[in-house]
Amino acid sequence: MDISVVICSYNRCDDLLRALETLSNSVVPKECKWELIIVDNNSQDDTKSICQTFQGRLPLHYIFEAQQGKSCALNRAVKEASGDLLLFTDDDVDVTEEWISEYFWAVKRNPMIMYFGGKILSSWQGKPPKWFVENSDWLQVNPRLNWGEKQFTITNMDRNFFLGANIAIRRAIFEVGLRYNDKIGPKGQFQEGNARHGAEELDIQKMILLHGHCGLYLPTAIIYHRDPIHRMTERYLRYYYAQMGEMDAFAGNVDRSSHMWFGVPRYLFRKLLQNIMLYCVTRWIFPSKFWLNAEIKAAGAFGEIRGFRRRFKSAQL
User: Fold this and answer.
1) Domains of the chain, with CATH numbers?
2) pTM of the full predicted structure?
C-alpha cells in the first residue's frame, strides 16, 4: 500500500460527508495503491452510517476508537493503516482532485524526506464583517497555511510547522516508536475553556526533527478548510489567540527569563493589562487594525498566563 489517507472524526457527520464527497473525486495515478482510514472517535451521531454509504465509492476502512482524544484516534490510525505514507487531514476540509497525487509523486521524488505538508486555504461559509475584511491579510483565526509557491525543505525547529489538516508522514517514522502524545490535543466536545489547538501535530514534528529527519513543503498539495461564520467574530478571535498563547506557553515556547509570579513570568501580567487598556481606548475611535492588534495581544497574554499556570500545576503533581 502506497498511501493511507487518515481522517479522525468526532460528532461531525455532516462535515465528514462533504469531505468524503470531495475525496471521491480524487484523480489518483494507476500506480498508486491507497486506502482511506476513518477513525470514529466515540461519536454519537451518524458517522458510521455516513461511512457505510461510501463503501464501494472509496477504499474506506471504518474504525471505532472509544478512547476520547484526537491523539488517541491518530495513534489508532497509525496502528491500523497499511500505507508507506500516512496522509492526515480533517473532516471539515475539501481536498483538491490532485491532492493525493501530489503527495504520491513527491514521495517518489524525495526518498530521503520523512514528512511533507501542503497549503491550507480558507473557504469561508458566510460574509465577513468589515473589520475582518480590512485585516484578513494578517489575521489568523482559522487553520490556514500558505508559504508561497516555492518548494523547500525544513531542517530545524526555526521554521513554521505544518498543520494537521494537511500533513503526511512516512510509516518508517512510527516504526521506530514515535507516537502522538495522548496527553495533548483536542478531547471531546468543544468548550471554550479547553485547549483545542494542534499541540499534538506540533509535538510529533518536533520529535521527527530531533531525530535528524527533514520535512518538505509542497505548494501544490492544496486543501480548503471550511470556516463557519462564527469564526468571524471578536469572541472567536479572543478565544483563538488565547488558545495559541496557552499552547505556546505550555510547550515552553514563551520567554520565561523574567521574575515569576505564581509560576508565570511577571511581564505577561503587564502585557495583558496594557493591551486591555489600549483596546478600550482605541476600539471606537481608531482604525480597526489598532484595536484588533491590542485585542489579540491581550488574548495571547491571557492564554500564555493560563499555559504557564498549567505547567506550574503539572510540575506540582
Assistant:
1) 3-229 (3.90.550.10), 234-316 (no CATH)
2) 0.81
